[in-house]
Inverse folding.
């Protein structure tokens, strides 16, 4: 019974994080964002990019980058599933949970890493006006964002990189 409760709490934590991903994307993409084939293809490219980073991290046996890539995959994949307006969101979340556990990754550590990645992602938004000669500057919901020509959010000077090492140490992963 105790293990079932732990698993339920972990899956609930992941669902709450997925909701945060959607909220973040709502700010990033604006109120009038339309899910088009181009938008879906862009999200698929982000999922592929993060999957390639995971493959490289596994190949290099870089545990910090593995957890970073797993957290990033959760973030981009969560929004991809929402974009598809899929009824299978909870099933996909369960599959991600099962894959993580089956591959002997610490799910509680991953949940904390996802929280840290989301904290970091919010720092891509600025409350003060950004300027850039290289990127498009957009104001949404009172926050300033930088976009490249492909629609990818770029990191302003106020961006704070996720700090996963202390989380991995806390969970005894490294």
């Amino acid at each position: 019974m105790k293990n079932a409760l732990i698993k339920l709490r972990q899956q609930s934590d992941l669902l709450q994080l997925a909701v945060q991903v959607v909220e973040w994307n709502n700010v990033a993409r604006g109120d009038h964002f339309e899910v088009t084939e181009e938008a879906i293809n862009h999200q698929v490219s982000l999922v592929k990019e993060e999957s390639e980073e995971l493959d490289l991290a596994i190949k290099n046996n870089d545990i910090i980058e593995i957890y970073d890539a797993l957290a990033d995959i959760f973030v981009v994949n969560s929004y991809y599933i929402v974009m598809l307006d899929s009824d299978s969101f909870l099933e996909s979340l369960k599959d991600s949970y099962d894959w993580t556990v089956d591959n002997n990754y610490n799910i509680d550590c991953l949940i904390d890493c996802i929280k840290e990645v989301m904290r970091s992602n919010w720092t891509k938004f600025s409350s003060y006006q950004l300027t850039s000669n290289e990127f498009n500057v957009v104001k949404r919901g009172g926050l300033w964002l930088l976009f490249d020509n492909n629609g990818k959010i770029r990191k302003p000077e106020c961006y704070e990189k996720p700090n996963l090492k202390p989380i991995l140490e806390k969970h005894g992963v490294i």
